[in-house]
Prior knowledge:
The protein folds into two domains: about 5-165, Regulatory protein AraC (Jelly Rolls, Sandwich); about 170-280, Arc Repressor Mutant, subunit A (Orthogonal Bundle). The protein has eleven helices and eleven strands. It has helices at about 100-105, 125-135, 140-160, 165-170, 175-185, 195-200, 205-215, 220-240, 245-250, 255-265, 270-280; strands spanning about 5-10, 20-30, 35-40, 45-50, 55, 60-65, 70-75, 80-85, 90-95, 115-120, 285. It has a seven-stranded antiparallel β-sheet with strand order 10-7-4-9-2-1-11, with helices on one face. It is globular and about 60 Å long.
Amino acid sequence: MSNEKFKHSFKTPFHDNLGLAVYSSGLQRCTAGHSWGPAVRNHYTIHYIVSGRGYFDDGKTHYELSAGDGFLFVPNCVVSYQADQEDPWEYCWVGFNGTDAARLVQETGLSCENPIFHYDKDDALKQCLNHIYDTNGSRPCDEARMLSGLLEFLSILMEEFGQTLPARHRNGYEYVEKSIRFIDYNYSRDDIDINDIAANAGISRSHLYRLFMQHISMPPNEYLSHYRIDKAAYLLRHNNLSVGEAAYSTGFSDQLYFSRVFKKYKGVPPSRYAGLVNSSDTGEEEKK
């Protein structure tokens, strides 16, 4: 096999709230010493090493990794990685997020505190990641195929490494799950706030904040805002609503405030969002 370096990848420019969304996927054979970070990403990313060696650092532990190992990026956790100088690694990866992402990642047993896994019993993980990359696109059928590969990938990790779930629940993750369900059922109301979410979970506001930061690396008020904006983006793209209608449908009574928050999370005002989505090139891969 040739040792020539390569990188094949794609990134989706818009992410609707469908519970789970693939942000990127790809495969890369790195040059000697190729590195990334220290930095953060705003979504989950899992790399799986096919061959070679490299190093992953989560700020607390420096890991030396090789074929069969994998590592997780959690949103807003500072990490870095680097290919070995003598035997640089080849890996494949998937980036994803959505309202179900935190729960699904928790089920795998992986976390910011436990980001490393090893799987070498077969090629199933590599095949899932290749499937995601091979079926990339922005049509509903493409999104469904990518998600099928992602769910299969996560299900393998759950089956192999998810035995730590009971310990996570003793650490309060059940309160996070209950809060996320409350947000899902009530996000369209403009009168809910963090006090309501904490009261529904049966814990104090400060305890809720600590649990959200521990388990999903995001404060509950930011999660609520992010959830609402994702819902609004979906309505703008698929339901042909006006900006005001999308705002009121997702719990924003002030349209100007909604526009500011929308631009913060999506990078463009809501008035431009739907047009940019519709005019984007939906079938082109990014390859470099």
